[in-house]
Amino acid sequence: MQRFTDMPPATRSNGSRLAGLRRGRRWTQSRLARETGYSLAAVKAFEQGRRSLDRGSVILEFARALDCHPAEITGQPYTPEDQEGQEVVAAIAGVRRALLRHGRPARPTDEEASRVDLVSLTQRVAQANAARQSSALPRSAEVLPGLLRDVQVAVDVLEGESRRQAYALLMSAYECSMQFLYKLGRDAESTLAVERVVWAAEQTENPLLVHAANWYLAGEYLSIGEHHDAADIIDTALRGLGTPRTPEATSLTGAFHLKAALNGARGGDGGATDRHLEHAREAADKLGGDRNDFQLQFGPTNTAIWSVSLCVERGRGREAVRTAEHVNRDLPADYSAERRGHHWIDVGRGYWYNSQRDEALSAFLTAEKIAPQQTRMNPAVRETVRTMIRTQRRSGLVELGMRVGAV
């Protein structure tokens, strides 16, 4: 039998990594079952790859018991084998360098200082965010390092209101970098970027921007299972927003309710999930249309997409499939590729939970067509496809498995 340590990294399942971490603690499968509350049969099925270990809440339970980061179970960061994916990953060094230089004097050359133009920088930041939302990771990789440098220079050389505007652009550029790094599974760098987002937002002296930055901060705590801390940040923001009187504040309030719903789903609080999702729907109805304030893409469409995601987070395959049927019918073809790609990933997982294997494969292929690199780098896709291959080896499935690194 092939040992875990002999297996190529790309072919290791979340279950095999879980088994390795368990053995590293010198725990038996029975001990892991007792510590997490899962049955011994479930632990064995996860470790043997007969049951997909892809749900965030389940991964967090095991990570908490084994005192490890969830990425140690999911195997992130993952290095793709295709040329385009490797070029995207190669750009991480430049983004990381810009993040590490945060807060230090930019020491611009005379030429760099003379080129500072807020109008041009605003356009470039908007273009970078548009590339990210269209899931054009190669384009993001191309523009982010230079953009971060130029906005950091602007913060250094400008004064007064112009400097506050530059800080707002810096916050947005850091946020774009965070999303880029997150999609590539670079958790440490992504967390660093979130800290930079919060800091830059505070320099703007704009309360709404500070709340928007804390939306991402709440997500950091949620991702490692610190649900009380995430809830505290969310509740503080919702109290600060109060009864929203502008579309921007309404949009942000709705986005926080979606984050709270996810926190409830990951933390096993179904009542909170349902309650906050309903509040988000009310905010979306109040807006009457989709908005992109603070790059959060809140509105009726994204709320509908989240309604499917939350079913998947709770392991409710039948409900996810039923909900997705309505969402798919109304999903605008020109909605952001980033969100549409994530939606079809969740649809595929919902079909898988509902034992609809052919439909699951079709949904994953749709996600890949919409957002290729985003789908191939998604840990839930890799884990689910790997499990599908173990239980039903078919040519189209194996080909997708090769592209996502599952075989």
TrEMBL record:
Family annotation (SUPFAM superfamilies): lambda repressor-like DNA-binding domains
HTH cro/C1-type domain mapped to chain residues: 18-73
InterPro entries referenced in this protein's UniProt entry, alphabetically: Cro/C1-type_HTH (IPR001387), Lambda_DNA-bd_dom_sf (IPR010982)
Disordered: annotated segments: 1-23
Gene3D superfamilies on file: lambda repressor-like DNA-binding domains
Pfam families, per database record: HTH_31
Entries under PROSITE patterns matching the protein: HTH_CROC1
Any one GO molecular function term: DNA binding
Protein name (Swiss-Prot/TrEMBL): Helix-turn-helix transcriptional regulator
Organism of provenance: Streptomyces daliensis
